Every structure is written in structure tokens, then in C-alpha cells.
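Lab notes, practical 5.
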Amino acid sequence: MTTVIKQDDLIASIEDSLQFISYYHPLDFIQAVYQAYKKEQNPAAKDAMAQILINSRMCAEGHRPLCQDTGIVTVFVNVGMNVHFEGNMPLEDMINEGVRRAYKHPDNVLRASILADPDGARKNTGDNTPAVINYNIVPGDKVDIHVAAKGGGSEAKSKFAMLNPSDSVVDWVLNVVPTMGAGWCPPGILGIGIGGTAEKAMLLAKEALLEPINIQELQSKGAENRAEEIRLELYDKVNRLGIGAQGLGGLTTVLDVKVKDFPSHAANKAVALIPNCAATRHTHFTLDGSGPALQRPPTLENWPQITRGTNANTRQVNLDTVTKEEVLEWKPGDTLLLSGKLLTGRDAAHKRMVDMLTRGEELPVDMQGRFIYYVGPVDPVRDEVVGPAGPTTATRMDKFTRTMLEQTGLLGMVGKAERGGAAIEAIKDHKSVYLVAVGGAAYLVSKAIIGAKVVGFEDLGMEAIYEFEVKDMPVTVAVDTKGESVHKTGPEIWRSKIEEGVVSIQ
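Output from the prediction step:
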């Protein structure tokens, strides 16, 4: 018997699923973060997870994006052989029309991050299309669809290797994870694909991330195959690295490790690793011909009630009056609450500014003694000053840092994750400072922004230079004026504590 799937039903289901995952974390993820939060002993890491949990509840209540990076859409479609589509669009176009409507939804506008001609003009498509779509034709009379929205920061940390057959997958992962830094916004999930060919291993790793978090169940029952053995071993050993939430050092780096494998050529052992971040977003639905498959909202009773406190190292900072002398007193790991005027700028703005400085041209805004926030916010809706506005990965600005500090008088930067060696040297040389906001707490951060206006490069859209007026925006000192980085010292300290048995990751 043939099942008829209407074009409009598929489009509506894609649209609904993407709106849903933009503001609802999977419940298993929230429960796993909460368990990690309760046992965490590093105050900085614990506060980072508190912000993630608070942000998650706020987004669920307010129906606004968990992260300003609302992701590149990935869709896995299993089409039953007895299905007939009723409509005038190819299946790919139906899916992309659902993406287009979701990202343009007037009540919850999502950020368009997809650029056409990626090594050329890099022009934004304006509606986050096209999606990356994977098809399987399977027995049956239904269409089964998994939808995910993958952030660029975590996707950028994807790794692949073609190992020798005798090489250890576990050893490879343990060597690779520390090189990933904190740009993937741990704690999160590692998806690992083993076998097949190069492209098959990557696909397996991405598919693995769609599975529910169940590492504790696996620990209780024990491994029944090699993939489960690897999961258990890596879950333990990666957490023993002490990387911790946001790379600040701590007891939980991964919430689960997922492994999928596939038969391989005798000469090869392809292995891929793809992390999922603190904005884990995916869902699943099935079309059976009865109409659109719409998501069911979860009950907010399942979200923990978390509050943030201050500690002895918390400082109030007025960005309008802060001095070099004041900045000299800040230490890695200190918590700051920023108030005052904060500039913004990320990749495209930095490249344009450095090009202008090279030509001897004047910048659109004076940066002497000021701070810049690496962010590309979501467009505001209703009475919002700005949409979700969490930090982007700071290492992408490293190659611009020395020029910016030398030629603009910039005093400090705010971003996500660690800085590279060249940027740290420039920060040290100019007695500047680098601060981190929590990746995965974009809506929470946006509530600290009480004013916003574009002050340069308006044509760059979300990458324009804004001037934010902020009130008590929470950040952590990551690199101080002496060049000491918390992303180096924090994991070292907590790895030693774990190895010496001073603390337990269980």
C-alpha cells in the first residue's frame, strides 16, 4: 500500500522542528548538564554550567534561540519505498523551504549564517539555506527524519584521520581532544565514526550525535561490543584530561561519547570525531500521511531551577572609565560584571578594519581604551534591544590582534574559548586583557544588553560593528596582562587533581 505524503506537511514539519530545537534543549542533555553541575568543584566551571542551565530555561520560556549561532541545518531522511510525495517540488526543495520558513519566522527570527561561494564572495544566502541533506531509501511506508542545527564553533573542531589498522582509536582521540581547545563549548558530546571510507566515517560521527545520552546506563550494564567498550573507555579518559566546562578546568568535559562503525577495507581504519556543543540541537519526527508531524513541547518542570551567586573574586567594572592600571590587577579566573559601552566586531569587521589601517584610513569608531566583543547577534524581535548575543570563537581573530592592539589602542577583548600563542604574546606586550563569556548562554547574555546601535560597517549585517550598552554582563578573565591563560592553567590544575585522587570525576 502506498502512503501519500503531502508537500505542505513535510515543509511544515521541517519548519516546526527547527523552531522547536532553536529554544528547547533535548531533555537528556539538560539532565546530564545538571548532574555535571552538581558535582563540579571548580567554581569557574560550575558557574559556566549554571549559565548554560539558566539560559536553557530562559529560552524554553521565551521561545528564543539557545545560541546566537543558530547553526547549519543537517537533515537525515529515511524514505520508505512505498511512499509517494504529492506536490510540485523535489524533496530537497521541500526541505529547504521548511528551513527558509523556520529561519524567517517573525516571532523567533533565527540568524542566517550560511554563505554561498565559500572561498569567494562569501555572500550570505539570507535564509540559512541550503541544508545538508542525507537520504536513505528503506523498506516501509513512512518518512523518518532527523533534524539538527550544528553550530560553527563545534563543527570547526571536527577531526579526521586514516589510521593504520593496528593503531589505537582511543589513543588518537586522547591526542586530538586537547588540541580542540574550548571552541566547541564543552561540556558536550563526542561523536566518533570508525570504518568505511573517509566520507563514511565523517557521516557516522555526525549520525552518532543524534543518539540519546545514556552513558550511565551503559556503565551499569557493561559493554557488549567493541564500540561500547570504546565509549566507556573514552568517557572516563577524556574527563580525566581535566579540560572542563568552557575549557576552564574541571571534572566534566564530555557528557557522553557516541560511536558508530562500518565495515572497512583491510588496509584502512578511517576514524572521524565531531563534537556537539552546549547548544546541542536535534529532534526526530515521522510522516505517515496523516498530516504534519509537529513537536510536543516538554514540561518546564523538567528544567532545574538554578541561580548564580557571586564570589570573592567578582569585580564590578565600568567600561566607560576603566583604566590600564585597573586592568593590571585582574587575574585569570576572576569573575567580572561589565557595565557601560562595549563595541562589537568579528571576522569580517576585523579584516576590514585591518585593511583600512594598512591603507592609513580612519576607522569608523575610536577604540582607544575600549573593549570589543566578538559577537554576531540574532536580530531582535518585539521589544528586544538585541537578540541572543553569545560570544564567537576568539582564535579566528588572533591574526588581527597585534595590529588592532598596536594601532587602535584597544584595551581588551571579549570572546569564547582560548587564544593562540601569537595573540597571547600581543596581549602581554600591550598589557591588554582577554575575557570570556560563556558559549551556550546567548539569551542570558543578551539580557545584560540594555542598548544597541550600529556604529560601523552596516552592510555586514550581523557582522557589523555595534556599540552595546551593557549592565552587569558576566565574563571571566581568561588572559591577563602578563599573558597567563586560564585555558592553560585551569586544565593543568584539574588534571593533576584528578590524577592525584584529590577529586573524583565519578
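Observations recorded by the TA: The chain has three domains: 1-25+66-150, 151-287, 314-491. Residues 151-287 form a domain with the 60s Ribosomal Protein L30; Chain: A; fold (CATH 3.30.1330).
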